[in-house]
């Protein structure tokens, strides 16, 4: 598979150079989608180092293991705030756990949906936006053709590499999509190379 996507993406000379420098990437599926989403919310607007500390404190509340949704719901909000979560993030994490318990978000259920259906489904949760679900699609569900249009790292890399201009926001988005369409059906991998271009991968890639 790696050879297949690298051959396709190498048609783009800019991506080809990144492939030659960084080698091939692999995508993995995570069994516990709920915890990935909780961790993603915890990490928002924080450095990777701080996010890692808070996530470890979170696990320590449950004996160092990934908790079940029921355990998260049963945890007192002040206990979650005490590990460094804001009031808003505390509510969002418990929203995710409640949704997982009541509606379901396991690999089997989400595996029957296409990317846009997963985004629509999980964006119902207060505190979960499109970008967060796109990261989940890539790094928890292993989807190969996701393009994170609103990711600042991707935008900055494409401005630099493809000489795009963000003055006109609508035109900028169209220009990004025009370039990215050539990477299909492997746009996730292209995003991974663009993040590596400035060594700026999104958080949670190893969780």
UniProtKB/TrEMBL annotation:
InterPro entries: Alkylbase_DNA_Glycosylase/TA, Alkylbase_DNA_glycsylse_CS, DNA_glycosylase, HhH-GPD_domain
GO CC annotations on file: protein-DNA complex
Catalytic activity: Hydrolysis of alkylated DNA, releasing 3-methyladenine, 3-methylguanine, 7-methylguanine and 7-methyladenine
Keyword DNA damage among record annotations: yes
SMART domains in the cross-refs: ENDO3c
Family: Belongs to the alkylbase DNA glycosidase AlkA family.
DNA repair among keywords: yes
Annotated protein name in UniProt: DNA-3-methyladenine glycosylase II
Keywords in alphabetical order: DNA damage, DNA repair
MF (Gene Ontology): alkylated DNA binding; DNA-3-methyladenine glycosylase activity; DNA-7-methylguanine glycosylase activity
Record EC number: 3.2.2.21
One Gene Ontology biological process: DNA alkylation repair
Occurrences of domain HhH-GPD (ranges): 42-199
Any one Pfam family match given in the protein's UniProt record, by short name: HhH-GPD
